[in-house]
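--- STAGE predict ---
source: upstream dedup step, 1 unique chain passed
mode: sequence only
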Amino acid sequence: MSELLEIESLDLDARGIAHRDGKVVFVDGALPGETVMARIARRKSSYDTAKTDSILRQSPQRVAPACPNFGMCGGCAMQHLDPAAQVAIKQRVLEDALAHIGKVQPGHVLPPLHGPTWGYRYRARLSVRLVHKKGGVLVGFRERRGAYVADMTECLVLPRHVSDLLAPLRALIGSLSIPKAVPQIEVAVGDDATVLLLRHMEPLAAADISRLRTFAQLHDVCWWLQPKGPDTVHPLEPGDADRLAYRLPEFGVRMAYRPTDFTQVNGQINRTLVSKALSLLDVQPGDRVADLFCGLGNFTLPLATCAREVVGIEGSQALVERAGAAAKQNALADRAHFTKLDLFNVDAHWLRGLGRFERMLIDPPREGAEAVSRALAGLEPAQRPVRLVYVSCNPATLARDAGILVHEGGYRLMAAGAINMFPHTGHVESIAVFDAPGSGRAGAPASL
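--- STAGE serialize ---
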């Protein structure tokens, strides 16, 4: 039986939030401000879930989903919500996390960083499954709230040329001698090449290799293969080893990478983010800068174009080596240096041993940078970087770390804002700016 519900807000799974008899109800398919008839799907002790049957009063922010797979495919959750409203919700999530978890409030709310809402996804992991009931091989994202592979032949968040490959890939995998032994294909789109990384659990036959080569020539892609663990990843054609790369034209930098390396999904937003982060960090020519969780040097190398010295610190030796090679390739090895360190287990003593940094950029994974934040809070005021820029992919851990920096370290949260790296999803990226107490800065830079 359907029940009348008033939708108050939205969670990051794009479920409407209502209350009934003092209990929270999460409603699939409903938006804030809507009145809906919804059927309870599951009852829990602290909440219920429901599915919308009909909308009695529609939100003005509701739009028609552009993708025919929406609702079935798990790749997107918010296509039925106007993109500007999506960004506003993510900004509110960030501000709420800072207030409730970190007990802090930014002095200034940065305008959100956003870019194209379609064709933006330059990295993707596509599941592959042979399903005879569906007529053969499926290639795509998994179904929403399920383990099955979505039956899809296009994807509007992938670049058009990659979306156009979904149907040909289904036919290709179905033609191989081992279609049941191919669980996934990873996609990496660079400025000069599109790489498809084929995970295969059994050896490929000579005829399979021939089919892959024909497909690559026909569709202008490069195949990489992964027969076992990550260390077995290699290009099918040795000449393709160095083709995958992206450029940061503002800084004259070319970043080569492997299809298994971490790079940002949204290439255009990444370029904007790097520029914004460096502007907010306000680096001066004589500054010594630290880039923590530096990865391949996405921020390190641009920083090296405007600072005296940049030290990139990363937990993966392989990434440290590739970042060092990138510095040499971009003629920045004299100012960009890299070292391996577990940044989840550091303290103030370690930080003192690195010497004084005037600026610091922190870009951690979802776990955040709690140990680094406590190490910074434990430094004497004269040793602290005068400015920190923290790039986050998890508002909860950013808020936790902001609380440490502000309440224990005396830093001021100057500004924070959302980054819409993943349009149509609930994923929230953000950026925050901190100034050290008594830093002597004459106010925030104009970029704030």
